Amino acid sequence: MTKALTLSWEYPPLIEGGLARHVRKLSENLAATGTEVHVLTRGGEESPAEEVVSGVHIHRVREPRRPTDLGEFVAWVERMNADMLAAGVELGDRHDFDLVHGHDWLVAMACDHLARRFAAPLVTTIHATEHGRHQGWVDKHPQSHIHGVERWIANRADRVIACSYYMREQIADIFGVEEGRVAVIPNGIDPGDLQPQDEARLERLRAEFAAPDERLVLLIGRLVYEKGFQLALEAMPRLLEAVPETRFVVAGSGTHEVELRRQAAELGLERHGTFLGWIGDDVLHSLYRIADVCVVPSIYEPFGLVALEAMASGCPCIVADTGGLREVVPHNEAGLRFRARDPESLGEMVERLLTDPELRARLVAEGSEHILRFDWADVARSTAAVYAELTDASRARAHA
Predict the structure, then answer these.
(1) pLDDT < 70 positions in the chain
(2) What integer pLDDT is reported at residue 71 of this predicted model?
(3) pLDDT for residue 396
(4) Helix axis angle, 70-94 relative to 108-118, nearest 10°?
(5) Strand order in the sheet with 99-103
(6) Domain CATH number, residue 263
(7) Are residues 368 and 380 in the same domain?
(8) Are residue 354 and residue 381 in the same domain, yes or no?
(9) The pTM is what?
(10) Which pLDDT does position 15 carry in this prediction?
């Protein structure tokens, strides 16, 4: 049995974004396949320092609340890594780990030191890059620092895991990593996790945003520039001319929220839509159920989990023809794609879907089948195969 130490800066119940959910589902499914998984993460006073949940051994270091200022955040990450390293050393004294697996740059330093200390292979999953998030503008601190850490850990690791072929190309081109060292393992989705509210509550929720004869467009995710929500807002005036009974909902929060609200006001969209801010999972999952279409207008998108969540919830999706979204959403099958960065193309696709009920029904049906390709059990088996390849090679070298 492989014994793996996984490092992640977030893990439920502490959730900053999609990473926590990814690491949890992967860890639980790896445990189900026979891997002994220990997750080293951070937590508050309300979470136990150690526990076993769904077969996963969870170890938490206490960390103060993260700062919002990005410059201070980098220093905070360094302190967190020092604390994780100390905790990892202690864990290594109790367990004989075969492999270390880190997620993103946030835990790179601790992963490197622990893998060397254990003389164990190091796997790193790069979920996104600073270069991609900032369209290549990484010459100033702290972007330059984060970019440097990502380049270093990608080249240091024995194997890099990417969530799409697009990301594999990015990692190879930006960091100079041989493509053969990058394994492509898509993210998974569990439709059972997308539990909506009951039908009566769904009806009340939809009534908050749209009348029965109106169409509801959903925009959901982190409100940051690279997610492209500004393109969707720019497309709205023309869409409202073509389909007047249309409303929109923007769900999420982020650094671009103030600018998006300002843009909506300047375009005269305030009476046509709602900004919800941050919402919990129960409402988030319900929004997919009550919307007529979910739009994913990203400029940079390594994978596109929102599109899969929409499909799993019976909501047709329209996505930008870019990045991992090309792989996740087959055009005119499981969803529609529009020309990336093109508001006019986006508006045309939304109009097409809102005015064609047969198309909408077909996309919903095909989307529900398409998501079966992204099963967490398959993700875990592929990851376990990477583990086995590396640990077998490591043991062979040790006995050579």
Answers:
(1) none
(2) 80
(3) 84
(4) 20
(5) 50-53, 56-62, 36-43, 3-7, 99-103, 122-125, 159-162, 182-184
(6) 3.40.50.2000
(7) no
(8) no
(9) 0.94
(10) 86
